[in-house]
């Protein structure tokens, strides 16, 4: 993963900006320039601005002796704050700013130039500086003009730049708005949902209340907010405030397909199997309109696309013990595929969004007979109905699930007394035993099948810590493959197919950017404390049914090997606060909470 992804729309806007930077005219952009000159240097300071933000290109002309390095200084007149920079190391202390050369552009011959740029925010007036110093020596006086305040039709998305004579060996770590970074989590803060944070802090979770969690848009009404709660605009506005001009990633779960979750009643949705038109026009279109608002162009918006949907088409739509009529219907009518393709294309067209498709978990798709067909299904959906592989930045595994990120005490290649651990009842001939190895293996298959080599993987670690007194501290006994695996596995579920409100689970690894090769981030997509489903039938207007896998007294079905569910009792509806489970997650956190 090395090359930022740039849309055609971004390239077109960049071209417009470079015209402005070189002295041309672009009606949609407001510009100004300030210059100063002495016998040693002159500075051209070119601005393109909109409502509360601006992009600046600075060109230094050396009219004195040749330089081996340079450091340009100036002070802002107002409250301008620099948020991003390129081709220089730019630092700010109050109103004072310094910009120093990078390793590749320090040498400037007599009469030569050096160029760098930055983005910034402001309120009120954005007056250009007119006094500069170069290596501590004043460049002299000059005049500047105050840029007009009429906002552009479309804010600039790529800064004006003049390429250095020697190309940089390392690209800018934070590109300007509109140019997609390779990994949206690197160098960015995570959005803290104040509603979840308040619930967590008020129920003994002060130690994790400042962690970033995803916002679930699980019905049309959630876009505007339900029961007085925050809607999407409110969350995006809050994200802008939290960002304070710095990179910030906000995660949104896109989760309202027609006939949603065809194999699990607890999370059935509001739309019927044929409501694809409503999904597109009443759900995806309004979300895309909000995400595309220029007010949010500085955010990195990660869309988690439709958990469980495409994996269900592969494994539960006919011909297997776990198949359901509902999944067969959705495979036959094609509305899962149409909906996901539409979401990818619509949201992928925006300049600051990152789409991650849900890819189940290792205990669902880890067998060769499931993984290969799943990768092919993902590619099919990403290349039809207007979508392209460029609309997919990566995939997420273990969404709202409990599988261990890494099993430290046994590997799928281990043998016990000549018998492979794949023959154990727990592994059951799977090719993977944990999420990280599965994520990497799946990624390799996806790239082989046609996805970009830049795709990254996310792992939901919100509830897969499995700490507490029951956590193993070493491998199991080598009496048999079963004693070896069961004695050493940190995932303490009765069966790996159990997914609802699992007893004994704990908070997992905290959200972390780039924790391992091919992994973009560990994330908390399922907010800890929110129920997976009611343990008994509860009347509601949210379209959520009762699934026996959430009933602790149920004996199981084909999808969990007819084992007990391991679910906690007295659980509320999916997405509602489940205090008893939250307390257990806190107690069993791993790493432990300090």
TrEMBL record:
Source organism superkingdom: Bacteria
Pfam families, A to Z: CBM_2, Glyco_hydro_6
SUPFAM superfamilies for the chain: Carbohydrate-binding domain, Glycosyl hydrolases family 6, cellulases
Ranges of biased composition (kind: Pro residues): 148-178
Binding-site positions, substrate: 216, 218, 361, 364, 401, 499, 526, 530
Family designation: Belongs to the glycosyl hydrolase family 6.
Protein name in the entry: Glucanase
Catalytic site: 261, 308 (proton donor), 532 (proton acceptor)
Keyword terms, alphabetized: Carbohydrate metabolism, Cellulose degradation, Disulfide bond, Glycosidase, Hydrolase, Polysaccharide degradation, Signal
Region span, Disordered: 139-183
InterPro entries: Beta_cellobiohydrolase (IPR016288), Beta_cellobiohydrolase_sf (IPR036434), CBD2 (IPR001919), CBM2/CBM3_carb-bd_dom_sf (IPR008965), CBM2_carb-bd_dom_sf (IPR012291), Glyco_hydro_6_CS (IPR001524)
Gene Ontology biological process terms in this record: cellulose catabolic process
EC number: 3.2.1.-
A GO term for molecular function: polysaccharide binding
Location of the CBM2 domain: 34-142
Transmembrane segments annotated in the record for this chain: none
Signal peptide extent: 1-36
Keyword hit for Signal: yes
């Amino acid at each position: 993963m090395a090359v930022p992804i740039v849309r055609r729309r971004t390239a077109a806007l960049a071209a417009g900006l470079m015209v402005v930077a070189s002295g041309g005219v672009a009606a949609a952009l407001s510009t100004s320039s300030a210059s100063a000159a002495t016998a040693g240097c002159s500075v051209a300071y070119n601005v393109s601005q909109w409502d509360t933000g601006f992009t600046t290109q600075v060109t230094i002309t050396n009219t004195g002796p040749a330089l081996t390095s340079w450091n340009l200084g100036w002070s802002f007149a107002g409250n301008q704050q620099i948020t991003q920079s390129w081709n220089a190391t730019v630092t700010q202390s109050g109103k004072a700013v310094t910009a120093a050369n990078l390793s590749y552009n320090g040498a400037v011959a007599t009469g030569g130039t050096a160029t760098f740029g930055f983005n910034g925010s402001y309120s009120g007036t954005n007056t250009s500086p007119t006094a500069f110093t170069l290596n501590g020596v004043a460049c002299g006086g000059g005049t500047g003009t105050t840029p007009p305040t009429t906002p552009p039709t479309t804010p600039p998305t790529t800064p004006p730049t003049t390429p250095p004579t020697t190309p940089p060996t390392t690209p800018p770590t934070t590109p300007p708005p509109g140019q997609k970074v390779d990994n949206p989590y690197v160098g960015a803060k995570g959005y803290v949902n104040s509603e979840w944070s308040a619930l967590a802090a008020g129920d003994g979770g002060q130690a994790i209340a400042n962690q970033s969690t995803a916002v679930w848009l699980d019905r049309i009404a959630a876009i505007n907010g339900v029961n007085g709660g925050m809607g999407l605009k409110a969350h995006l506005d809050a994200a802008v405030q939290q960002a304070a001009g710095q990179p910030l990633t906000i995660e949104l779960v896109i989760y309202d397909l027609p006939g949603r979750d065809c194999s699990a009643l607890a999370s059935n949705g509001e739309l019927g199997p044929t409501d694809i038109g409503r999904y597109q026009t009443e759900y995806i279109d309004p979300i895309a309109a909000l995400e595309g608002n220029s007010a949010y162009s500085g955010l990195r918006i990660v869309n988690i696309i439709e958990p469980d949907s495409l994996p269900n088409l592969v494994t539960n739509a006919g011909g297997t013990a776990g198949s359901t009529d509902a999944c067969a219907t959705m495979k036959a009518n094609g509305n899962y595929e149409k909906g996901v393709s539409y979401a990818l294309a619509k949201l992928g067209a925006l300049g600051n969004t990152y789409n991650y498709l849900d890819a189940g978990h290792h205990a669902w798709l880890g067998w060769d007979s499931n993984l290969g067909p799943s990768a092919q299904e993902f590619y099919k959906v990403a290349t039809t109905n207007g979508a392209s592989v460029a609309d997919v930045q990566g995939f997420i595994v273990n969404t709202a699930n409990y599988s261990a990120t890494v099993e430290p005490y046994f590997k799928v290649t281990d043998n016990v007394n000549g018998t492979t651990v794949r023959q154990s009842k727990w592994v059951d001939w799977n090719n993977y035993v944990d999420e990280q190895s599965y994520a990497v293996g799946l990624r390799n298959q996806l790239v082989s099948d046609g996805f970009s080599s830049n795709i990254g993987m996310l792992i939901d670690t919100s509830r897969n810590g499995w700490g507490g007194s029951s956590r193993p501290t070493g491998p199991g006994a080598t009496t048999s493959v079963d004693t070896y695996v069961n004695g050493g596995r940190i995932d303490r579920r009765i069966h790996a197919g159990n997914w609802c409100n699992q007893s004994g689970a704990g908070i997992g690894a905290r959200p972390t950017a780039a924790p391992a090769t091919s992994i973009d981030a560990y994330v908390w997509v399922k907010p800890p404390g929110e129920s997976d489903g009611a343990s008994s039938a509860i009347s509601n207007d949210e379209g959520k049914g009762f699934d026996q896998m959430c009933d602790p007294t149920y004996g199981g079905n084909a999808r969990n090997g007819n084992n007990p569910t391991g679910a906690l009792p007295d659980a509320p509806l999916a997405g509602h606060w489940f205090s008893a489970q939250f307390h257990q997650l806190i107690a069993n956190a791993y790493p432990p909470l300090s």
